[in-house]
Design goal:
Layout (H helix, E strand, L loop, with lengths): L9 H23 L1 H4 L14 E5 L2 E9 L4 E11 L5 E7 L10 E5 L4 E3 L6 E5 L6 E8 L3 E10 L15 H4 L11
Parallel strand pairs: 2-9
Antiparallel strand pairs: 1-2, 2-3, 3-6, 3-7, 4-5, 4-8, 8-9
């Protein structure tokens, strides 16, 4: 006995085909709208560093942070770049608990020069903020005025271990090595 496959009438088949063809653009539109609710992260500007950036007139500040264990002394880490044609005298001061500026450190940056603060051993006293907190810091420049930025306080560990006396020893400051490869 021969089986006969029942076919749908032509009108039902064309309705399903039309519905499927009409659904394709709707599905494409809905799935491509994901970016509306979840923007591409690479389009969001950010500073890929531990510290914060700032601009004070012709002086650019990058990766500015404090290294402290909260006992009163803090090392200042970051870079200053003077894009002007004359030397810039820069004063850095962290705000104390009451909001008053603490003792300032002063450095000079030549025209067109970059200065790495940690290489110069720049220190501030009176910084009692614990690692993990943010401290308002005044950056004042002779070529551009002053600005206040909130800088992070990091512990004297790993990369920053050698910036403060009493930080981790260089052996403790190194990053852990990769685990040994399995041998058979």
């Amino acid at each position: 006995m021969k089986r006969r496959i029942l076919a749908l009438p032509r009108s039902r088949r064309s309705v399903r085909t039309t519905a499927a063809v009409a659904a394709v653009p709707a599905v494409v539109a809905l799935t491509s709208a994901c970016q509306v609710f979840s923007p591409v992260q690479t389009n969001v500007p950010y500073a890929p560093a531990d510290g914060v950036p700032a601009t004070v007139g012709l002086l650019q500040v990058s990766n500015l942070l404090l290294v402290s264990n909260g006992t009163g002394e803090a090392a200042v880490s970051g870079a200053l770049y003077n894009s002007g044609n004359e030397p810039a005298v820069v004063q850095l001061a962290a705000q104390q608990q009451g909001g008053t500026p603490g003792p300032a450190a002063q450095v000079e940056v030549g025209p067109g020069q970059q200065l790495i603060l940690s290489d110069k051993g720049v220190r501030l006293t009176g910084v009692t903020a614990k690692p993990g907190t943010m401290v308002p810091m005044t950056v004042q420049s002779s070529v551009g005025g002053a600005t206040v930025v909130n800088v992070p306080v990091l512990p004297p560990e790993r990369y920053y271990a050698t910036l403060l006396p009493g930080g981790a020893t260089p052996a403790e400051a190194t990053l852990p090595s990769a685990p040994p490869s399995p041998t058979s």
